[in-house]
């Protein structure tokens, strides 16, 4: 059985599926498409010949590939009109459920940064590396996004 960073594929799927599904859903707003994207990510992993230095490197690779597959999804002809947020998507955030609808009001690039920072706990430097951006750019975008979310939340109150 194939292993990456010392983990068997079934362990990787079990460990990272929820994270990758959350990323794909918050990007696509569509659970079936998110599941398809994550399946494509794992199929890409199976074809991967590259070895990973450690589990952190593997996780970063999985997240980056998931975001890239989401970008491909938006470029493809599979994209339909935006699907409304449904009850089946509420698993995405536990305590954060009150904020989830407001996060979907952000554009795709903003949601990526918010998700990686607040849901996955990545630093601005790590996000910059994952998204191939400058650290200062990620920091300034994060500040602007916080202000935008604050305004959205205040308008909704």
Describe this structure in words.
This protein has 157 residues and is mainly alpha-helical. It folds into 2 domains: 1-87, Rna Polymerase Sigma Factor, Chain: A (Orthogonal Bundle), CATH 1.10.1740; 93-157, Winged helix-like DNA-binding domain superfamily/Winged helix DNA-binding domain (Arc Repressor Mutant, subunit A), CATH 1.10.10. It has helices at 9-28, 31-47, 55-75, 100-103, 108-119, 124-131, 135-156; strands at 3-4, 7-8. Strands 1-2 form a two-stranded antiparallel ribbon. A hairpin with a 2-residue loop joins strand 1 and strand 2. Helix 1 runs antiparallel to helix 2 (31-47), helix 1 crosses helix 3 (55-75) and helix 2 (31-47) crosses helix 3 (55-75).
Q: Give helix % range.
A: 55-70%
- Uncertain ranges: 81-99
How many alpha or pi helices?
7
Could you say what the CATH topology of the largest domain is called?
A: Rna Polymerase Sigma Factor, Chain: A
Q: Tell me the β content.
A: under 5%
Shape: globular
Structural class by SSE content:
mainly alpha
Give the CA-CA distance, first to last residue.
53 Å
Strand order of the largest sheet: 1-2
- Top-tier CATH class of the largest domain: Mainly Alpha
CATH architecture of the largest domain: Orthogonal Bundle
- What is the average of the pLDDT values? 81
Number of domains: 2
**What is the element string, with H for helices and E for strands?**
EEHHHHHHH
The count of β-strands is: 2
| Rg calc | 16 Å
Biggest beta sheet attributes: 2 strands, antiparallel
Organism: Cytobacillus praedii
Protein name: RNA polymerase sigma factor
GO molecular function, one term: sigma factor activity
Domain HTH luxR-type: 121-148
